[in-house]
Amino acid sequence: MKITSTHLGIAIIILFFASQTLLADELKFKFKSPSFSGQGTGAHYLTIENQEKSRRDKIKDDIESALKAADRENENSTINKFIRNLESRIYSQISKGLVDSMFCDPSVVISCTNSDAGAFEIEGNSVTYQRVFNEDGLEVIRLTIVDPEGTITVIEIPIGIGSIGGG
Questions:
Q1: Which of 4, 51, 136, 148 could connect to 124 by a Cys-Cys bridge, CB 3.0–4.6 Å?
Q2: How far apart are CA 35 and CA 46, in angstroms?
Q3: Each residue's pLDDT tens digit, 129-165
Q4: pLDDT band at 18, cuts 50/70/90?
């Protein structure tokens, strides 16, 4: 058998690698996910739970704010503003007419009860009124309002101050 330069080259390469000390380490496989490895699993699960809760809370808050915005938009619509304004004016005229008929000057108001006391009921609330002198000696109209739960509210309106009454 004849040794050629190719065989010689291969032999030199094999000798070169064989003469070197081969070092190797053991290959170890580890899962990086705590769900598989078990290391840090509790913290991992808490992090996931917090992220999910944050998302749920944000969705809930977004829905609530959208509903509130829709309610505000509905309340501020032109027709609702008109209805509130109309109700306010109607109640104002009713209360003015009530005061005028209860404590009025017959020469100014056509229909006067010209009474010093009375009572009526409005929306389940009992209202009594009477013309009295208070602790300061001022003549006042004392309104006593009793709501359906029994809560009592007393309002004293001075006579002759402003445009109420004629004293």
A1: 148
A2: 12
A3: 888 888 888 888 888 889 889 899 888 878 766 544 4
A4: low
Q: How many CB atoms lie within 10 A of CB 165?
A: 20
Q: Residues with Cβ < 8 Å from 114, sequence gap 6 or more? A: 104, 106
155 touches 162 (CB < 8 A): no
Write down the pTM of the prediction.
0.37
Are 145 and 157 in contact, with CB atoms under 8 Å apart? no
- Asked if residues 129 and 143 have their Cβ atoms less than 8 Å apart, the reply is yes
- 53-94 pLDDT, tens digit per residue, is 999 999 999 999 999 998 888 888 787 787 788 788 877 877
CB 127 within 8 A of CB 120: yes
